[in-house]
Each structure stands twice: as structure tokens, then as C-alpha cells.
Write a structure and sequence with these properties.
heterodimer, A: 356 residues, mainly alpha, ABC transporter involved in vitamin B12 uptake, BtuC, two-stranded antiparallel ribbon, two-stranded antiparallel sheet, 17 helices, globular, B: 336 residues
Chain lengths: 356, 336
């Protein structure tokens, strides 16, 4: 219980689901061999970390930010530009991560101090504008960032697909650099998730929740609202930056679409809300469901759409087209906000075992 | 005593002119950098027209926020919806739009605008009742639910109209430009500016000279007091929300014709500009929104000419500068 900071997932159904997800992720290269399943597992890890850090803001502090993807992109671009400029090496990776962290913390601090003192709704609007401008800037400054094409780069030798740790195979799987990369992603995500869990269960986390519930009262008790909220945005930004950095290492590429696109922001929002706001475990549950649905449900939608088109039904083929899957997700999102504000986690905890 | 006696008895608040003069200051500052007079006139005219269009989209949002604390992140979806409705009118009636008759040209354009206003207004009613009404007073949920609404509407637009851009040209009479000396002013922008000014004038008249306007302004200042006096402010709010949605649709049509194309992503991009405008203007203030829109558009045009890559960043810098000067926007509304 120490490792979970005394905040173990309550409820049997939730515990079983989370253990299943964690075990599948931990042994993903052996349980589901092949390139695609490993990509899916990696994306679940990264999205879980990204969503967990976002939940510190949305669920615990009750602030809506649209600049989370900006921090994610800063980490990704930090690693990409360092490796692109300095060549593959761990020194370059470290430099990229540190530089990315510095930039994203400075931005988070500036935006927080600037817009959180007036009204928290200001924060939502200001972050939207800043994140949009940042995205445009990244695609415009093509001499530095590679513009729309982004930057492909070489990763350290150990992480390349060609590298083999040992000659033979373990359970029929060769331990290549790809598998090592996956375990690097997995380890970083687990470690940072546990740190975030520690933070939200610290006195600081309690104050954040107090401010969310009743800012006036928290202020009257002597807690500085702007300080706590700004610190929360910085912590969230740091988590997202780390997620961006390891994702870039996995992809060997960083571009506006993979690192800064607004659709990533929407994805994270959907993951947190459907998974359950105000509980970091929601991020894990939401990310697993979201990424698996994204990768496997779309195929089913395509089949349904084709079937509807062949049956000559009006409208349905368009609505069921795989590219329109956000439509159904958006509907689920609205229903979740109304009827299941605690998301999957809340539903599983309540014990009726149905996802929201 | 009649109502006018009350008006006479109250001392009028002093007009705060400083913010209204900022566009002039910006224009004066930009002039030496641009150098040529004709370029300056062209850019300024373009900026004013763009400002009017942004104002049309932003004014509804600032009022709904002022009244009910509802910030509609789905506002961008209404902008796109209006533009798509215009294609439904303009594309089948291409013959009218291509004809030489000014009356037919104007007729088809006004028809498109009216259709967009009507559909967006009606859709605004549904959106308000279905999506926003259940979460009055809960900021976090409002933001989330309106984002969800925006996603769904945008995806529905893609599903109904296809994912590709639809080219949309202005009617023949509104193409080309006037030449004044060396400066060129596009005809269509003049039209857009006239529509924008008309909307501003109409809003000012309604807000300052009618009972409904009085109630709206009172609601922005202090909702509870208006309710305590026995007015159903939630019904009033539905009306304001519908008007705001209709204006978003109107602005969407104007913008689509100005850009010559329609795409569902335009709403999201414009929403960013609209937010900057209403933050600069002061949340809830129509006058501030007007000034802010002109300011943003002027700076976007000047920056687009002087340093194209920084055009979008210039708006953020403008916002920072304004908020450092007046933390609650150019024309802060009391009580918020």
C-alpha cells in the first residue's frame, strides 16, 4: 500500500480490471507479439500518463486547460531536436528532456500566474489561444522544427530494432531494442504515475480538492489559491512533457500531428472524463478503453458502414464511417458528464460493474 | 413619473474613451513601419472589415457569458453550421449569384444569410435546452459539455456534408475591388463591414433603448436582482443564446464567403480569435467586444504584412498587453 500512497483502488471490479490492464501492459511483448499490439500497448501507457497528469488539473484542481498538449509537444520536440541536432546518444536525450521540461514549466508558470488570478474560466480561454498559437508557430518555424514534416531522428543504439540484448529468445520473443524501448516507456509511465499518485494524496493534493470544492473557504483558511493552482499546472505540465519525450523516443519522429495536434487534447479530455475525473486510476482505465477502441472499434465501424451502404440505408453509412468515430465518442462524453461524472471508475466502484 | 424622468434624474456615467481610441493608436504606430500610404489604407480597410466579421461572431458569446456565466465552447460549431447552411442556398442558386443583376446577387446573398440566421437560431434553442440547461451554474461541467457538443456537431457536419472543403464564391456583384488612388478595397469587405456595423447599431439600439435590452443589461450586471424583481431571466437567456447562435451563423457565412471556402474546422480556428476578442473587450461587454474585434483584426493584418510568421502570436501578445493594462479587459463589466 506504501507504493500506492494509501490510495488503493477501492471496489473489487475496479481492482480486477486495473490489475488485468497492468499485467497485460507489463507482459505485452510476450502476450501479444507483433508490431501493432505493441504500438497499442505503448500508446495506452503514454495516454495513461498524459491523462493522469491532466487529471491533476481537471479532476483534482477543477481547472480546464487546453495547453496540456502544448506541454506534451514541448517534451516531444525537446527530445527530437536534441537527437536531431546532436546525434543519437543518451546525453542528447537527457539534454532534450531537461530543455523541454524547462520550456514547458516556464510556459505553465507564465500562463498560470497570468490568467489564474482573475477567473478560472479565463484560464481555459487563454490556454486555448496560447496552445493554438504554439501549434501554428511550431509548423511555421520550419528551419528549427521541420515544419509540417516534423523531424525524424536516430535513437540511441540500444533502443533500435536492430539491437539484440541476448542471442536467443525468451518465451519465443527476441529481446530487441523495440522491446527494450517498450519497457523504457512502461517503466517511466509507471514511475511517474506513482509519483503523481503520491502528489495528489499529499496535503497539497487535499488543498487542491478543497479549492475545487470551495475556493472562498480555502482562501479563508489561509491557502493561497493562485499558488496552489499554478503549482498544479506546473506539475501537470511536467507529467505531460515526460509523456511527450518518451513517446518521441518510441516513434523516432516528432511532428505537429503526433505531438501538438488539437485532437490529442480532445483525446485526453475524453479519456479523463470517460475514465473518471478526480481519480488517477480513471486515467488508466480510460486510456486502455480509448486506445483499444480507437484501434479495433474503427474496423468494426467500417464493416457496419459498408453493410449499411450495401443495404441502401440513408445517412447511416456516413454516420458509421470509421473517420466519424469521434461523433460516437463525443456523445459518450456528453452522457458521461451528465450521468456518470465519476466515469468508469465510479461505476466500477459502485459495484454494478457497468462502464459508463 | 415616466421612465424618461428616471433617466434624467440619474447622473450619466462618464464615457471611458481611452480603450476606444486604442485602434487609432495601433494604426498610428503601424503606419511608419508600413511606409506606403496605399498599402496602409488597403491593410486598414481589410482589417476593419475582418474586425466587423469577428465582432458579429463574438458579440453573442460575450452577452451569453455576461448573463448566465455560460461560456459556450460550442460557439465555433455554430459558425461552421451557418457556413454550411449558406452552401445549401448559394450552390443550388448559382444562376442567381452569377447573373449580372445586382438585385438577384443581393437577393441570393441575403437569402443565404437569412437561412443561416434562422437555422442557427433554431439550433441554438435546441442546443441550449438539451446541452446547457441541465448544467447551469456548474462551470466545469458547462465547459466539458459544450466541448462535447462542439465535437458532435462538427462530426455531424462532416457526416452530412462530407469531409472535404466546399468552395463558395461570393455573388458576382461582390467580387473585385474598388480602387481609390493606389489603394484597393475589396467590394465584398465593404459589404461585410456594412453588415457588421448594422449588427452593432441594432445591438446598441436594442440594449440601450428597449425594455428587453434593459433587462439584458441588468442581467449581466446582477442576475439575482433581476430575478428577485420577478423576471424570468432563464427565458430571456434562451432568447439571448438563440440570438448569439444566429449571429455566429451570420458571421460564419460572411467569413466563408470572404475565404471562398467552407470547412467544418473553420469554427474551431475562429473560436480562438473570438475568445481573444472577448477577453480583450471584457467579458460581457458589447462595446468592448467591438473595440477588441477591430484591434485584433487590425493587428492581425498589420502583422500579417510586416511579419507573416508572427501574425497569430501577435494576437496573444496583444491580449497580454491589454490584460496588463486592464486586467479585466478594455471595458470591464461590474460585478465580475
Amino acid at each position: 500500500m506504501m507504493i500506492l500512497s494509501g490510495d488503493a483502488p477501492r471496489g473489487r471490479a475496479l481492482r480486477i480490471a486495473l490489475i488485468a490492464v497492468t499485467l497485460s501492459l507489463a507482459f505485452a511483448p510476450f502476450l501479444f507479439p507483433g508490431a501493432k499490439p505493441l504500438n497499442v500497448a505503448e500508446k495506452i501507457c503514454v495516454y495513461a500518463l498524459l491523462a493522469a497528469s491532466y487529471d491533476v488539473l481537471l479532476g483534482y484542481a477543477g481547472i480546464v486547460s487546453f495547453a496540456h498538449v502544448m506541454a506534451f509537444g514541448t517534451g516531444a520536440y525537446g527530445v527530437a531536436l536534441a537527437l536531431y541536432g546532436l546525434g543519437p546518444g543518451w546525453g542528447a536525450v537527457a539534454l532534450g528532456v531537461v530543455a523541454g521540461l524547462a520550456v514547458s514549466l516556464a510556459l505553465a508558470l507564465a500562463i498560470g500566474l497570468f490568467s489564474l488570478r482573475v477567473q478560472s474560466i479565463f484560464f481555459a480561454m487563454v490556454t486555448l489561444a496560447v496552445a493554438y498559437a504554439f501549434n501554428v508557430l511550431a509548423s511555421q518555424l520550419s528551419q528549427i522544427t521541420g515544419g509540417e514534416d516534423g523531424r525524424s531522428f536516430q535513437v540511441p543504439f540500444v533502443l533500435r530494432p536492430g539491437f539484440k540484448l541476448i542471442g536467443g529468445e525468451i518465451f519465443g520473443v527476441a529481446i530487441t531494442g523495440r522491446v527494450l524501448s517498450y519497457y523504457l516507456v512502461f517503466a517511466v509511465c509507471v514511475a511517474l504515475f506513482l509519483i503523481l499518485l503520491r502528489i495528489v494524496n499529499s496535503p497539497f493534493g487535499r488543498v487542491l480538492q478543497a479549492i475545487r470544492e470551495n475556493p472562498f473557504r480555502a482562501e479563508a483558511l489561509g491557502y493561497r489559491i493562485v499558488f496552489h493552482r499554478t503549482l498544479a499546472t506546473c506539475i501537470a505540465a511536467a507529467g505531460a512533457t515526460a509523456a511527450g519525450a518518451i513517446n518521441a523516443l518510441w516513434l523516432h519522429y516528432t511532428g505537429p500531428d503526433t505531438a501538438l495536434s488539437f485532437s490529442i487534447q480532445i483525446d485526453v479530455l475524453v479519456v479523463v472524463v470517460i475514465g473518471g475525473m478526480g481519480s488517477l486510476y480513471g486515467a488508466v482505465a480510460g486510456a486502455a478503453l480509448f486506445v483499444v477502441a480507437q484501434n479495433y472499434l474503427q474496423a468494426a465501424m467500417g464493416a457496419l458502414s459498408k453493410g449499411a451502404a450495401e443495404a441502401g440505408l440513408p445517412l447511416l453509412p456516413g454516420l458509421l464511417h470509421p473517420d466519424r468515430w469521434l461523433l460516437w465518442l463525443g456523445l459518450m462524453f456528453i452522457l458521461a458528464v451528465y450521468f456518470a461524472p465519476t466515469g468508469i471508475v465510479g461505476k466500477l466502484r459502485a459495484g454494478n460493474g457497468e462502464g459508463g | 413619473m415616466s421612465a424618461s424622468d428616471f433617466g434624467a434624474a440619474l447622473p450619466r456615467p462618464r464615457m471611458d474613451l481611452a480603450p476606444a481610441l486604442t485602434p487609432l493608436v495601433v494604426a498610428a504606430l503601424a503606419f511608419p513601419f508600413i511606409g506606403s500610404v496605399s498599402t496602409f489604407v488597403t491593410l486598414t480597410a481589410a482589417g476593419l472589415a475582418m474586425g466587423m466579421m469577428i465582432f458579429i461572431m463574438a458579440s453573442g458569446l460575450t452577452l451569453t457569458f455576461g448573463m448566465m456565466d455560460v461560456l459556450n465552447f460550442g460557439h465555433g460549431a455554430f459558425i461552421s453550421l451557418g457556413a454550411y447552411i449558406a452552401t445549401l442556398v448559394l450552390l443550388p442558386l448559382t444562376a442567381w449569384a452569377q447573373s449580372d443583376s445586382l438585385a438577384l446577387n443581393l437577393g441570393v446573398l441575403l437569402l443565404a444569410l437569412a437561412a443561416a440566421v434562422a437555422v442557427c437560431g433554431a439550433f441554438g434553442f435546441v442546443f441550449e435546452r438539451l446541452i446547457i440547461a441541465p448544467v447551469y451554474g456548474q462551470h466545469l461541467k458547462q465547459i466539458l459539455v459544450t466541448i462535447g457538443g462542439a465535437i458532435v456537431v462538427e462530426q455531424l457536419l462532416y457526416a452530412l456534408f462530407g469531409p472535404d472543403q466546399i468552395p463558395l464564391a461570393a455573388p458576382a456583384a461582390f467580387r473585385g475591388s474598388y480602387l481609390i488612388g493606389d489603394a484597393t478595397i475589396e467590394k465584398y469587405r465593404v459589404f461585410a463591414a456594412i453588415v457588421g456595423l448594422a449588427v452593432f447599431a441594432a445591438q446598441m439600439l436594442v440594449l440601450n433603448r428597449t425594455k428587453i435590452g434593459l433587462l439584458i443589461r441588468a442581467g449581466v450586471e446582477n442576475r439575482e436582482m433581476v430575478e428577485a424583481l420577478g423576471y424570468r431571466i432563464d427565458r430571456l437567456f434562451v432568447g439571448v443564446f438563440m440570438a448569439g447562435s444566429a449571429l455566429a451563423g451570420l458571421g460564419g457565412v460572411l467569413w466563408a464567403l470572404y475565404r471562398g471556402q467552407v470547412h467544418a474546422s473553420m469554427g474551431g480556428e475562429l473560436l480562438v480569435l473570438v475568445f481573444i476578442v472577448i477577453i480583450i473587450g471584457g467579458l460581457g461587454s458589447v462595446g468592448g467586444c467591438f473595440t477588441g474585434a477591430i484591434l485584433v483584426a487590425l493587428i492581425a493584418n498589420y502583422a500579417g504584412f510586416l511579419a507573416p510568421k508572427l501574425a497569430l502570436v501577435s494576437n496573444i501578445l496583444l491580449m497580454v498587453a491589454v490584460l496588463l493594462w486592464r486586467p479585466r479587459g478594455l471595458y470591464p463589466v461590474s460585478g465580475r
